[in-house]
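Feature request disguised as a bug report, sorry. It would help if multi-protein outputs had a clear separator. Right now it looks like this:
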Amino acid sequence: MAKKETKNKKENNKNKKSFSKDFKAELKRVSWPTPKQLLNNTVAVITIVLVTAAIVFVLDLTFETLNKYGVNKIKEVISTSNTTSDESANNEKNTEATNENAESENNSENNAE
């Protein structure tokens, strides 16, 4: 077992050394942007982020306003329809009560005669 452990340690050290050598070699092959390209790309990214943020902000305000006034408008419509239906129901009840009162008065007058 001792031979296997030492063999694994040697392979790990070898892998670590080759990794660092490969890493350095790969960094030398990278084509780095020029300062002008870096500036252009940075400006493009910042511009896109700001435009996107402005669009999201405007949409947020629009939907918030629509939600605020839209919900209030719906509440008004519902309350007026409820009020209207309540009034019509009350009017019907009053009409029925008036008719019943008139009939009972007529009956009492007829009975009195």
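(second protein starts here, but nothing in the output says so)
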Amino acid sequence: MIRGGAGPQVVDRPGGDVVPAASSSRAAEPAPLRTEFDFELPRGFVDADGVRHSHGTMRLATARDELLPLYDARVQENPAFTTVVLLARVITSLGTVPAVTPSIVENMFASDVAFLQDFYRRINAEGHTRVAVTCPECSHRFTLDVSGGRLGES
């Protein structure tokens, strides 16, 4: 016999045992893990033909992504090059560039590299691309998605 009112339902079992009734609604399935994040570079990478590439995708980094650059000769000579090698590994697309290489990242504007470093940190350490901001004029606080989405896009 199933009994229960406003509270949780229970089932009377033979022998006097009382156990929770099975829920009629399925447990909410967890959202799938998001592993790729789109971004829009502030300035954009300009290739040899003068074409500007600003929309791209970055994937979550693996431990291997963070370890392999340490074996790179360029990184051993100059540890600051770690960022270049690491970003080239995790950026999966950039406009119509066939493959993002360390050379591509090296030739990006400094402001775009700084944006990508922050974006990398956000998706890998914080798990999202949102940032809290305050309007300098009215002091209204809100969140902004730095992944490059435009108003009205989902």
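Even a blank line would do. Unrelated, but nice: The longest helix spans residues 110-126.
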